[in-house]
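Notebook p. 47: complex prediction with aspartic acid.
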Amino acid sequence: MRLLIHTGGTIGMVPSDGGLAPGAGVVEAAIGSRARIHAFDPLLDSAAITHADWNRLLDLIEAEAGPVVITHGTDTMAYTGAALSQALDGWPHPVILTGAMQPLGAGGDAEANLELALTAAPEPGVWLAFAGRLLPAGALVKHNSHAADAFRSVAEPPAPGRFRSRRFADRALGILTLSPGMTGAMIAGALATLDGAVLRVFGAGTIPAEPSLARALAEAVGQGRRLRAVSACETGGLALGAYAAGAALWAAGVENGARETAEAALIRLWLSLSQET
Ligand code: ASP
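Predicted complex, structure tokens below:
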């Protein structure tokens, strides 16, 4: 019988005074005896997921050493999908994430998504069972905040490497989106609190012309902070050297995230700033 790790999310939510919130026993009642359930306590709206939760999931998955299903909220599914995909590179068993846009029992997508996750037998790797499809979970985009078909996968999974057990260390990392009019002081203020950051830049890799911005990026890199650029566009990625308006980015020592999603780039930075276990 498969292990199902229930972290929370809409799939198992019930109404509360403040809106939908995780409800104890909802997923258990739907599953019956079809899986062994390990439920997070407390159950989480996935907005509350942190790197400590990714480490808990990795502990449970590696101890199971077999197929695992994970129920998870959709809001940060792309982060957890990237975290597990990269940390479990080369792991010889499938991990199947699922969730729903409406709770179980509401006549929506929850029952079908859960059924797909419980019955699918994909190749090793990390997958998302959602809206009738199994998507590789390493580069997910939640492109719709209401419809049942809420996700797409924007990259092919890379060829698996050799498995090494890895965990996420306590690091201060975030995603910063550049926008017209931003200055070096704005970015430097945020970077002063961070070990590194993903920069969402324009198009194929351009940034605002403000000279203080380029200086702030170069200073942060000089201080040992890791900066990784990705495109604010959903697909296509960065083309290093395509525009003069991006030259300052590469001169500053910012890393090229190429076609990575912002979530996947954040996880790449995080793992490279963490020790192997
Ligand atoms: N806020 C919910 C969550 O991410 C949304 C969902 O699950 O669809 O936990």
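Notes: The chain has two domains: 3-153, 173-274. The longest helix spans residues 51-64.
Next step: compare against the earlier run before touching the bench.
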